[in-house]
């Protein structure tokens, strides 16, 4: 299970979770682990229900909704707030299902962000190049290492550059730079190309 994480909201985590999932050749479950700000389902164009909490002993394939125009991607929206206490169990069920999964995490390095990182095998960081976002991404990277979900790379959004200083700060390689684009971002060919390159760089074994 790959956690998509970052220090700040609005840096492109959800777009990256969906863009990477669509770019991978293997069937993938894209899950939203952010009950407070659930937006994966809206970006994916699927219904708000059933959610990640609906697994409860059921196979993800029987619960998740197919991403329109991308039959290889199944989407599990975030649990409702009143079901959020069971998020750790839901993520554990997803991990034990054996299905490759990409999990969109809450922003920051707080307790809510720690829950999906504990369930993940590795982390993909997402950040812009602004100083506050980079500082917060460094905190998220440190937490991911502590929770045994080490960062395998960082995706820089709204840029075409990949400064060496970012590698030094975050302690992992820049695996993709996604150029700025007007919404819908995943309809932009430049963005789609960047996520295809990201998928090729990471490989399916990352999941």
TrEMBL record:
SUPFAM superfamilies: P-loop containing nucleoside triphosphate hydrolases. It comes from the Archaea. Keywords: ATP-binding, Nucleotide-binding. Signal peptide: none annotated. This is CDP-4-keto-6-deoxy-D-glucose-3-dehydrase. One of its GO terms (cellular component) is cytoplasmic side of plasma membrane. The keyword Nucleotide-binding applies. Pfam families: CbiA. GO terms for biological process: negative regulation of cell division. InterPro entries: CobQ/CobB/MinD/ParA_Nub-bd_dom, P-loop_NTPase, ParA/MinD_ATPase. It comes from Haloplanus rubicundus. Residues 2-162 form the CobQ/CobB/MinD/ParA nucleotide binding domain. PANTHER family: SEPTUM SITE-DETERMINING PROTEIN MIND HOMOLOG, CHLOROPLASTIC, SEPTUM SITE-DETERMINING PROTEIN MIND HOMOLOG, CHLOROPLASTIC-RELATED. GO terms for molecular function: ATP binding; ATP hydrolysis activity.
């Amino acid at each position: 299970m790959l956690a998509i994480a970052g220090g700040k909201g609005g840096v492109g985590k959800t777009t990256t979770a969906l863009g990477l999932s669509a770019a991978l050749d293997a069937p993938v479950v894209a899950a939203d682990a952010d009950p407070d700000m659930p937006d994966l389902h809206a970006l994916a164009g699927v219904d708000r229900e059933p959610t990640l909490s609906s697994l409860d002993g059921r196979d993800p394939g029987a619960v998740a909704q197919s991403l329109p125009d991308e039959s290889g991607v199944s989407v599990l929206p975030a649990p409702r707030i009143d079901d959020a206490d069971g998020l750790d169990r839901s993520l554990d069920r997803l991990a034990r299902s054996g299905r490759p999964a990409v999990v969109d995490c809450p922003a920051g390095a707080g307790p809510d962000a720690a829950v999906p990182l504990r369930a993940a095998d590795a982390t993909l960081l997402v950040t812009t190049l602004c100083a506050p976002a980079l500082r917060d991404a460094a905190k998220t990277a440190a937490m991911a290492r502590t929770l045994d979900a080490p960062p395998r790379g960082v995706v820089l959004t709204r840029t075409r550059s990949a400064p060496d200083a970012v590698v030094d700060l975050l302690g992992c390689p820049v695996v993709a730079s996604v150029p700025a684009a007007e919404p819908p971002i995943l309809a932009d060919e430049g963005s789609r190309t960047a996520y295809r390159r990201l998928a090729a760089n990471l490989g399916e074994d990352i999941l």
